[in-house]
Amino acid sequence: MGEKRTRKRMPRAVREQQMLDAAVRIFGQRGYRAASMDEIAELAGVSKPLVYLYLNSKEDLFSACIRREAAALVAAVRDGVGAAEGTSADRQLWDGLRAFFTHTAERPDGWAVLHSQARTQGEPFAALVTAMREEMLAYVTSLIAAAASEAHGDPAPSQRQVAGLAQALVGAAESLADWANRDDSVSAKEAATTLMNFAWAGLGGLVEGRAPTAPGATPGNR
User: Fold this and answer.
1) What is the span of the domain harbouring residue 38?
2) GO terms for molecular function, please (predicted)?
């Protein structure tokens, strides 16, 4: 009786986040098709009817997980860059990469939902991830453009060159996050260092006289 009264008093938003936490874990580890609403309800400590009451269906629940994890990832990268506000553009790019790999390491199930599950399950899930990726690409493009312009001066690199490097950088970040999450010996800092060096190698043709090294970066622990 006491437990039931406690559940009733719990705010809906808090209970819903518990359900999403459980769903992200189950979807990330078992996959969308294999995951069951019974498993999710049990892990969340609620009844299956309550999960349906809050989130309507398995499809809606999975979509809610994608939206939450996508928003959290974008926010983590923006916060990482924001913490370096007022420093050089390449430092901001480095801090953004470091934040990306730290976040995906801390939330491996969320990353699996975004990168491994949602993209392979067709619509409408793939569209949600594509929207997140486009937002990330636009943001990374602006960071690379600023870094290249700051280092190279006039004339600035073409938009096409910068956009191409941003595409390569985001794609490489996704692959490196998978690698780092499969190998516990790979730290977030090491993954960021690898990618930053890759970025500067790509900028080599755009930025004259810049060595391809991440600012102050050496492999370390998470």
Assistant:
1) 1-56
2) DNA-binding transcription factor activity; transcription cis-regulatory region binding
Residue among 165, 176, 119, 115 nearest 142 (CA): 165
Query: What contacts 215, CB < 8 A, 6 or more positions away?
Result: 88, 90, 91, 94, 196
Distance CA 66, CA 114 (A): 6
Contact in structure between 74 and 49 (CB atoms under 8 Å): no
Q: Quick one: 104 and 34 in the same domain?
A: no
pTM reported for the whole predicted model: 0.83
Asked, as a colleague might, if the bond just before 157 is cis with ω within 30 of 0, I would say no
C-alpha 192/C-alpha 214 separation (Å) is 8
Q: How far apart are CA 98 and CA 81, in angstroms?
A: 9
Tell me the per-residue pLDDT of 73-114, one tens digit each, with 9 for 90 and over. Answer: 999 999 999 987 888 888 898 899 999 999 999 999 999 999
Q: Render pLDDT for 183-194 as a digit per residue (tens, 0 to 9).
A: 989 999 999 998
CA distances to 50, 62, 63, 74, 118 from 121, rounded to whole Å, are 25, 11, 11, 22, 5
If you write DSSP's letter for every residue of 79-127 in order, what string do you get?
Answer: HHHHHTTTS-HHHHHHHHHHHHHHHHHH-HHHHHIIIIIGGGS-TTHHH
Same domain, 99 and 123: yes
Cβ-in-10-Å burial (0-12, 13-18, 19+) of 111 comes to: buried
Residue 202 to residue 217: CA distance in whole angstroms: 18
